[in-house]
Amino acid sequence: MNTSNSIIQEIRFPISENESFCFEVKRDDLIDPIVSGNKWRKLEYNLLKVEELNKTGIITFGGAFSNHLVATAKAAQLGGVPSVGVVRGDELTSDSNPTLKACTNYGMELVFVSRAAYSGQCESTYMNDLLMRFPGHYIVPEGGKNYYGMIGCQHILKETDNDYDHVYLAGGTGTTGAGVLVSSKGKTKVHVISSLKGDFLYKDIQEMLILALFDEEIVGDFMERLEVVSDNYFGGYGKVNEELITFINDVFHQTHLKLDPIYTSKAFFNMISDYKSGKIKSTDKVLFIHTGGLQGAEVWKGKIDWV
User: Fold this and answer.
1) Phi/psi at 90 (5° precision)
2) Which is nearest to 258 in space by CA: 223, 302, 224, 292?
3) What is the distance between the alpha carbons of residues 153 and 183, in angstroms, rounded to a whole number?
4) Which of 9, 96, 241, 262 has the highest CB neighbour count under 10 A?
């Protein structure tokens, strides 16, 4: 996948008639229409492990509208690797929505399981049963949340000047946030805006850094520069209200930047709010990481202007 498409774009976002907020956007959404943003970053080294270990296929997990599932399906197809997607919800079929249809079109075999069974996916018996059914397959956790996913996400800042006062990005599993944080410089404050309810993301990122660095003191130094926002989810994962739709459309008309309603728009909203409140100074250098996932906006066609 060619990450050179991920340009740095300078944006001037109008705050008032006489004031604009100037910042940069890392356009990882331009890497690929489907395997875009942090999806490719988290898959890159996992796919290399499939090849290195001579695995016969790849198994991963996700919900009905999972960007990760469809990205894995396409990336595996491009690499000539069979893929299996374990989907949360045994009432679903491959025709339930455009995301699941796309997974099937890219050659992914979908396995629909109950929510109770899905919640136990980390149990060894569950994994053993899967590997019995699909021998020789390599397992990638939901959202690409593992060591190799985090390592891939380190490349995002390495493709920039990496001299920012603030970096903003959306968070689901914390994998991208961990990779960005561990590759950031000492003055950079990393803001991860959670799309999910709950305060688990800070701990998840901390645990991933410990896995990578093996030193709690060093991890502590990194964690001092991390802010996780867990109260900006507009009602919960997948919940989209009129305020958020209006904001997405306003950003598009002002900047031509496309945002999705599940992840990137909520992180962008938080960044703009921080500037308006004075948390970001006008002299600060700020980066917004566009983590892709735009295919998830298709459901709101007719409401979101760019869809």
Assistant:
1) -80, 0
2) 292
3) 9
4) 262
CATH class of this structure's domain 3-35+146-300: alpha beta
Per-residue model confidence as pLDDT tens digits over 142-190:
999 999 999 999 999 999 999 999 999 999 999 999 999 999 999 999 9
Tokens in use for 45? 């080294």
Which option is the CATH number for 38-143: 3.40.50.1100, 3.40.220.10, 3.90.550.10, 3.40.50.1820? 3.40.50.1100
Q: How far apart (Å, rounded) are the C-alpha atoms in residues 115 and 127?
A: 16
Asked if 53 and 79 count as a contact pair (C-beta separation under 8 A), the reply is no
Q: How far is CA 136 from CA 50, 76, 289, in A?
A: 10, 15, 35
Instruction: Report the distance separating Cα 129 and Cα 148, nearest Å.
Output: 24
